[in-house]
Amino acid sequence: MTSTVNAPSHPRSDALLQRAQQVIPNAMYGHQDARGLWPGAPQFVSRTAGSRIWDADGHEYIDLLCSWGPIIHGYQHPRIEAAVDKQRRICDTANGPSEHFVALAEKLVDVVEHADWAMFAKNGSDVTTLCLTIARAHTGRSTILVEENTYHGALPWCNPDKTGVLPSDRAGLAYYTYNDLAGIEKLAAEHAGDLAGIIVAPFRHDPAGSDLEMVDPAFAQGLRRICDEHGAALILDEVRTGFRMSFGGSWEQYGVRPDLSSWSKAIGNGYPIAAVLGAEHLRASAGSFFVTGTFWFSAVPMVAALTSIALLEELDGLTHMFARGDQLVSGLREQASSYSLPVQITGPVTMPYLSFAGESDHQFTLAWAAECAARGVFVHPKHNWFMSTALTPTDIDTVLVATDAAFGEVARQFF
Ligand SMILES: Cc1ncc(COP(=O)(O)O)c(C=O)c1O
C-alpha cells in the first residue's frame, strides 16, 4: 500500500503496543486489534466526546464506527452521563437489582412489538446463547438452524474462528445460507421433530470484510411460517441492528415478529448491557432454568439504557440517523462516481459498508480509510459503520470533504 498524505505518526500508541506485547497475548486481540486496519493506524483511544474520538497521540477524528455500535447518542451524552452519575453515587452492583431492572424491562416490552418480557445480561453473545437455550428448553428439542457466516458472537458455538472448538460445542446446529428460503425449507424438513429454533440476523453481516446483504422480505416471512409449521422459535439477533433500523423490531417493517430477540450494543449508549426479549408463550420456559452473571443486574447500565431509549424517542433518533446516513451515503456515491471509482455501499444507510469492486485484501478500502484518517475521519475499512444522533449535518459535510480528498488520492494512486 502506498503511504498516505500527511499520515500522522503515533509514537505513544506504538509504545503502548510494545508494552502490550509483554503482558497481553498477541499484544491485542479480537476486533480491538488495529492491525486489521491500515499500516500505522492508531491502536489506542485516549478521549471521546460527542461525535469525536482522540487517539493516544492526540489526533482528533469524527468517528463513524461509534465504538463498533454501542454509541448511538455520541460519547458522554450529557443527559445520559448525568443520570448515570446520579445512579452511581447511590447504587450500582448490589445484592439485588434496583428498581431500574423492572423499569427497563417495562420500557423494552413497551417499545419492541413482539416482546412480552425481558431478561438482562452484559454482552451480545450472552443473549444470543440464552435465546438458543430458551428455544431448546421450550421445545425439548436440540436443533437450531444458523446462517453459515453471520456473526452471533465469539463463544465456542458461534466463533468464526474454530481454534479450540470441539465438534461437541457445535452439536445441535445445522447451517443455512442467508436468503435461501428453499434451502432452509429443506433443512427444516430434514430436522423435523427435532427443530428447536432458527436464529437469523435482520440483514446478512459476515464477521468482517464482506458486503452486507439486505433480507428478502419473502425470506423473513418464510422463516416465520417455517417456525410456525415446526413449532420452533424464530430468534432475531438484533445485537448489531437494534434501534438503528427501527424504533422497535427490525423486521416489523416486513410484518414479521420473532419469538425471541437478542439485543445489546446500542441499548445503553456504551454502558454494558444486553437483553433477551421474548413472546408470551416462551415466558415459562425462559424462567424455568438457572442462568445468571455477576454483573448482569447492575443498576448504572440500566439507567443508561432507560435514558438512551427516552432520548431516542424525544429526538426522533431514527429519523435523524436515517437523514445523516442518507446525506453520507449519497455524498459518497456521488464522489466515487465523479472519480469513476468502482465503489459499492451496502446495508442500511444507518449502518453502511463501503468496498471497492474487484479489490483483493481490501487494498483500496484500506488505502481510502487511511486517507480519511489522515484528514480526521475514522471509518473502518472492513466493517460497517454506525450513525448516531450526535452526528450533525455539518459533521457529515466535514466528513465528505475528507472522503472526497481520500477518493481523489485512491484514484490517483491506483486507477
Ligand atoms: C449480530 C451480532 N450478534 C452478536 C454479537 C456478539 O456481541 P458481543 O461481542 O457483545 O458478545 C455481535 C457483535 O458484534 C453481533 O454483531
TrEMBL record:
InterPro entries: Aminotrans_3 (IPR005814), Aminotrans_3_PPA_site (IPR049704), PyrdxlP-dep_Trfase (IPR015424), PyrdxlP-dep_Trfase_major (IPR015421), PyrdxlP-dep_Trfase_small (IPR015422). Keywords: Aminotransferase, Pyridoxal phosphate, Transferase. GO terms for molecular function: transaminase activity. SUPFAM superfamilies: PLP-dependent transferases. Gene3D superfamilies: Aspartate Aminotransferase, domain 1, Type I PLP-dependent aspartate aminotransferase-like (Major domain). It comes from the Bacteria. Its cofactor is pyridoxal 5'-phosphate. Pfam families: Aminotran_3. Belongs to the class-III pyridoxal-phosphate-dependent aminotransferase family. This is Aminotransferase class III-fold pyridoxal phosphate-dependent enzyme.
